Amino acid sequence: MPDLTTESVGRTAQEKASLVWSIADKLRGLYKPAEYGRVILPMTVIKRFHDCLLPTHGQVLAANEKFKHLEVRDGFLRKASGYDFYNTSRFTWASLTTESPENIESNLKDYLRGFSDNVQEILFGSGMNFEPELEKMAGNGILYQIVSDFGGAKGDFSPDKVTEVDMGYVFENLVRRFSEGDEAGEHFTSRDIVYLMTDLVIAADPRVFEGERIQKTVYDGSMGTSQMLSCMRERLRALDGDAVVTTFGQELNPFTFAIAKASALIRGEDAANMRRGNTYNEDQFGGYEFDYVIQNPPFGINFSAQAPDIKAEHAKGDQGRFPCALPSVGDGQTLFALNGLAKLKGDGIMAIVQDASPLYKGNPGKGEDDYRRYVLENDWLEAIIQLPNDAFYNTGIATYVWLFNKAKDARHADQVLLVDASQCFVKRRKAIGFKRVDMTQTCCDLVTRAFGAWRDGEWSGEVDDGTTVTVKAKLFDSVDFGFNRITVNTPARDEDGNIVRNNRGVIQVAVDENGRKLTDTEDVPLNQDIDAYLEREVEPYNPGAFIDRKKTVVGYTIPFTRAFYEYKELEPADDIALRILEHEKTLQASLEALFGEMRAGV
Asked: How far apart are CA 109 and CA 115, in angstroms?
């Protein structure tokens, strides 16, 4: 497989995105920079459509003439174009720019109206709504210049020059630039992280090569411009050139949804599988199940507006998408995870990016804690991989890939592998937003090797800059993350020190001077006997202490940082004292020299 460093892989995407960005600068004055995307993204989509169709343009015109008497000729035109879309206009980009500039508006409109209905829906529908922008540019005399710039030698977006994945990253690069200060980073994930996720999904699937060819369905509930889906498709087809990979995605943002739909058309997939709506409460894939789910949902998104619908879904219990306790309304990332799990087949696999909060947030039985209980007790969680900080464009915080498998290998049953890849990266020469590091192919290979080994250990390798990077892994039983939170009562005692009971023989709880009951909580590991723990850890310090059994609740936490903590022995106190004395001597000598010079000067 190729090197995945985004400095080298995707260079074409970077170059094309830079070209488009330079064209956008021509809009200065007529548009604010935050508005450039209204023009440039549709123009980039149009040029990509054009360059895909150009080789078969003559055949389409001939087919259109031949079958013009037929009311239904759509199938003939699709066959002639080689795609699920076509254009019957006589214009090409070359003829648009060689005719008189005065006619550019009418000519370009003629060209755009020549597209099949599925493309026109993308360009002129609620997603891009491009016609007002076209007229605005024409009315201000810059339309011809913009069209000409896209038609230059460097503006070739044909499939033999720009792969479908690279084209996707052109779109995502542009979305990032045009979204700065708005929703930057919500719609895309850098290629290196996506490839790591796809590799982990494939590595976790012992059934990937079953049958004569790979056949998989892939879903992303927060797809942005759909590049995670494209990368998953690319990876599977790299393993099997005849692989049948069918992708499905849902996206809320109308503009990025339009790009995703355009990308699906160009990939030759069913664009109807790309659907718009809020995944929280407008599920577009009810009743669907998929082989793979891969996604990077937004963190910290407030779902209070959708809360009534989400609560109604939660009330369905196991028949709904959100069967366990709901998270706080301020962060619905776990809802995306639960939605993905609900859409997995019985042997499906999911990789999802999450921040640190699902590891520990929530009290036992509530919120994220109940999410952990749900996935651990069902034995669906297979591994968690900590990524390097500064690996994403829009955040520098700690992030993790959670890998779920609904049909884990029997050797992995009731176990979870934690993988620390936080130091496995190459520094970028130039940061992009918060992204200052890349995970190269060497880095990704180390992570997948650690996952495949399924044991405690360290794996090291040398990356392009000559440095050595290391991945560490720790294997845990799922029960290791669980505990019983018990409520321990201090018994009331009379003046003679005897435990006080009521008339039914029930021990009374002691109270403090303010009348508050003297109780405490203890977290007892699930694999330990509660009574033995009480006798060993509590009774010696609180004789007669007893448990309120009705208040015992099961909780789960995943102490990722503690799992990889390495104790560093402190410097001996005598050595520290000696260093302080040496420092004081040096400081004293400096002061004496300084004041000596001052006295000499006087």
From this structure: 10
Q: What is the DSSP string of 374-440?
A: HHHHTT-EEEEEEPPTT-SSS--S-EEEEEEETT--GGGTTEEEEEE-TT--EEEEEEETTEEEE--
Q: Sign (positive/negative) of CA torsion 316, 322, 324, 325?
A: negative
Contact 492, 510 (CB under 8 A): yes
Tell which residue, 6, 34, 41, has the closest CA to residue 20.
41
| Structure tokens, 559 | 């102490």
Determine, yes or no, domain membership for 1.
no
Q: What's the chain's length in residues?
A: 602
Claim to verify: residue 585 and residue 511 sit in the same structural domain: no
Q: Look at residue 427 and tell me if it is in a domain.
A: no
Q: Which range scores top for mean pLDDT: 40-44, 99-103, 181-185, 375-379?
A: 375-379
Q: Which domain holds residue 396?
A: 187-413
Number of H helices, E strands in the chain: 21, 16
Residue 467 falls inside a structural domain: no
Does residue 217 lie within any of the structural domains? yes
470 Cβ partners below 8 Å, 6+ apart?
A: 423, 424, 446, 458, 459, 460
Give the chain's domain count: 4
Question: pTM of the predicted model, to two decimals?
Answer: 0.87
Q: For residue 206, how many C-alpha atoms fall within 13 Å in the half-sphere facing its CB?
A: 10
> How many Cα neighbours within 13 Å face the side chain of 95?
12
* Residue 599 pLDDT grade (very low, low, confident, very high; cuts 50, 70, 90): low
pLDDT 10s digits, 505-546? 899 999 998 999 999 999 999 999 999 999 999 999 999 999
